[in-house]
Every structure is written in C-alpha cells, then in structure tokens.
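Summary of Year 1 activities. Much of the first year was spent building the evaluation harness for sequence design. The harness presents a backbone, in tokenized form, and records the residue chosen at every position. We chose the following record to illustrate the format because it has been used consistently in internal testing since the harness was completed.
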C-alpha cells in the first residue's frame, strides 16, 4: 500500500475570506477537496487506461474519496487484479477468448452455465486445474496515482483560488 501525503500552506488564500466568516472558509475548502479528489480520479483513470487498455469506467469504480475531517481527505485506489469478464463482452474464438481490447489465448467460457461469466484458463499445461483469468494493473495504477499526486499541489491552489473568488462574489451578491 502506498501512502501519499500532500500538505500546503493556504493561509495567504484564506486570508481573503476571513472577513466573510469561518463558515465561508470551511465551505470553500470542502468544495476544493471534493473537486480535487474528482480531478485525481480523472487524471489517474486517464493515465491507467492509456497504459493498460482498461476502460476508465472500471478504474473510477475503484477510486474513492473519504473526507477525514473538515480540513483533510483521503483518496483510495483499489489495485486488485480485474477479472477479465469485467473488461467488456466476452466472446469465444477459435484460439481463445476476446474481451474488450484483450485476447486471452487458450481461454474459454462456460457457455451454458454462465455465458457472460468468468473467463477460464488452465493453470498448468498438462493439469486439469483451471482458474479465472485476471488482468493485473497494480504497477501502472501506482505509477499513475503517484504522478497525479505530484500534480495535486498546484491544482489544489488553483481550485482554492477559484472557490475563494466564488465565495467573495456570492457574498457581494447578497449585499
């Protein structure tokens, strides 16, 4: 498990909001955290999808944002291997099974029990044992997540400045 921590000094930006009150500061920061977590999910999914040919929709399902407190949050990425049948509609061919952009040679589907179910492959060439086919993407996932975390600091400051500006304009509209 990789733990990434991003800390930054937002005092200069929050100084502009002090006259509006603590509630406006907290609301702006909470919106900044949510928008930044969605940005990390998008950037990570885009990078992983380009490297591994896994649809972004599947990767985003494994990314979660947990607000830890009013001032911090945690983004979690599940890196377990994906079952092959989750990549798209499995299709039996002469040489194996095609799913999405992948082809698994020597694999098969159980047509009658689960036609859209798991894709199977023999574990060793001469044994009767078989197992589910999965796609490992943990190394690409960690690399993409780390790269997005490195870009997070400037993104957080940009979004925070936008949220502060929004809060100021919202307060001016009320008066």
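For this record, the design step produced the sequence shown next.
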């Amino acid at each position: 498990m990789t733990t990434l921590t991003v800390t930054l000094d937002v005092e200069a930006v929050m100084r502009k909001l002090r006259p509006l009150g603590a509630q406006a500061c907290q609301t702006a920061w909470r919106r900044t955290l949510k928008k930044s977590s969605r940005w990390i999910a998008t950037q990570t999914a885009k990078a992983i999808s380009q490297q591994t040919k896994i649809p972004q929709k599947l990767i985003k399902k494994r990314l979660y944002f947990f607000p830890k407190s009013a001032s911090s949050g945690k983004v979690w990425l599940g890196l377990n291997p994906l079952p092959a049948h989750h990549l798209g509609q499995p299709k039996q061919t002469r040489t194996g099974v095609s799913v999405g952009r992948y082809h698994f040679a020597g694999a098969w589907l159980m047509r009658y029990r689960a036609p859209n179910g798991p894709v199977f492959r023999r574990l060793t060439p001469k044994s009767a044992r078989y197992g589910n086919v999965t796609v490992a993407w943990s190394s690409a996932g960690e690399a993409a997540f780390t790269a997005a975390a490195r870009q997070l600091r400037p993104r957080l400051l940009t979004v925070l400045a936008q949220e502060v500006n929004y809060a100021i304009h919202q307060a001016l509209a009320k008066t």
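The beta strands are 63-67, 73-77, 82-83, 91-92, 96-99, 102-105, 108-109, 119-122, 130-132, 134-135. Quantitative recovery figures across the full test set are reported in Table 2.
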